[in-house]
């Protein structure tokens, strides 16, 4: 599965890095964590506030990954969190997830969730 669009990873120190989804998750794991999993509206608000800090969301390349993905697409189309917690909350933007061109299997945040490749 190709996941190449460079989006931001936010580290605990509020330092921003640019990485594709797989590299972003690897960075988090190497720091004893995972990309954010979101389980309620409060967590969603918290993650979005951090993601929006210093960001104008101009051309779409400055969006922020969360740890939601379709790991074994197309064999399994279920959404799962990279940290293994249950997928028990969602905040999809209108018309999402749309799997544009059949290549979008990772999720980024900008108030609501959109899938990207």
From TrEMBL:
Record-linked InterPro entries: C-type_lectin-like, C-type_lectin-like/link_sf, C-type_lectin/snaclec_domain, CTDL_fold
Instruction: Please state every residue range assigned to the domain named C-type lectin.
Output: 21-113
- Return the protein name: Lectin C-type domain protein
Species of provenance: Ancylostoma duodenale
């Amino acid at each position: 599965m190709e996941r190449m669009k460079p989006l931001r990873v936010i580290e605990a120190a509020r330092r921003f890095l640019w990485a594709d989804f797989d590299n972003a998750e690897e960075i988090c794991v190497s720091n004893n964590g995972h990309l954010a999993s979101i389980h309620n509206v409060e967590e969603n608000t918290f993650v979005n506030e951090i993601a929006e800090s210093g960001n104008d969301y101009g051309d779409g390349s400055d969006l922020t990954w969360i740890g939601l993905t379709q790991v074994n697409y197309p064999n399994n189309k279920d959404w799962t969190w990279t940290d293994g917690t249950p997928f028990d909350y969602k905040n999809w933007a209108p018309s999402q997830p749309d799997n544009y061109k059949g290549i979008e299997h990772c999720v980024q945040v900008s108030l609501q969730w959109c899938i990207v490749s």
